[in-house]
């Protein structure tokens, strides 16, 4: 999308939102229903996706938690409306990466890593609305068709370039091939912008806080910087677009979405509703995050989740993060976090376990007492046999 077209798109949607800001419940355009495959290629693609969905449905990584799945569905239905939501199948995956995606056949996959990163229901609605916008606009199908055409062009140009023709012909063939490859990625970036804008329209019609849109991308950049810092790497250049990038930069998205929502006021955030839905599984999601071996990004994420108040579960997870890295100073910090967790919740068996392991690893014999307390609080601990080998 050229800068001029982008400005026009923003102005056009802003005009729509200007009306919607005074009437947040403005209905969405009529929905014609989910697209059905028409051609042989499309029917083949749908068959592959249906088979992939059958495999996914039986996967051990799909959470069988009806309460959480029903909650995510309720947020999607409120965001895009009951007509659009009908027929969508939602699968919540136990995957710590920040992601959600939707296939042309109506299958939506939501990662657990998304659920612990969004701060409230409005932010979850922003991501779900964006993915549904891809579905409604048939972006995946268009990209499939576009990529097939462009790969045909690349294949023919490669044949010409290798045919031994003159230098000018070979050079032209290579240029055309490179342009075709570039168009495949540029095509995806334009669709991402379109999905961002349509997703914003869903949110406003549903009465969600539009400020959630840019907030997500601002924190995504901060977390990526924290990851880079923790790994002693350079910060990402959010103002520079890679040739192979299929998405706009996070900075570009945060900027045009912030411009879009400026002056629209506040909508419903729904923080308590989201926290209540995720709370039963949050401990498992935090443990998955620690296994990513991303100390900087995880420390940033935990700080964001805590805000001004660290609860016992988050302190225990922070202790696990430091104990896992395992530097001598980390073990001291971990023991301190576990002790704070125990002070807040004296029945927290996991905190005693972590405290005992951190102390023993750091050469402190008092760790045995903490491990005994752990076994007393959790007599059916699955690692009882292993823990007992550490006791005198």
TrEMBL record:
Gene Ontology CC terms, in alphabetical order: membrane
GO molecular function: metal ion binding; metalloendopeptidase activity
One GO-annotated biological process of the protein: proteolysis involved in protein catabolic process
Family label: Belongs to the peptidase M48 family.
Domain Peptidase M48: residue ranges: 88-259
Cofactor binding note of this UniProt entry: Binds 1 zinc ion per subunit.
Name of this protein: Peptidase M48
Keyword Zinc set for record: yes
SUPFAM superfamilies: TPR-like (SSF48452)
Needed cofactors: Zn(2+)
Keywords assigned: Hydrolase, Metal-binding, Metalloprotease, Protease, Signal, Zinc
Matches recorded under Pfam families: Peptidase_M48 (PF01435)
Signal peptide bounds: 1-22
Keyword Signal: yes
PANTHER family for this protein: METALLOENDOPEPTIDASE OMA1, METALLOENDOPEPTIDASE OMA1, MITOCHONDRIAL
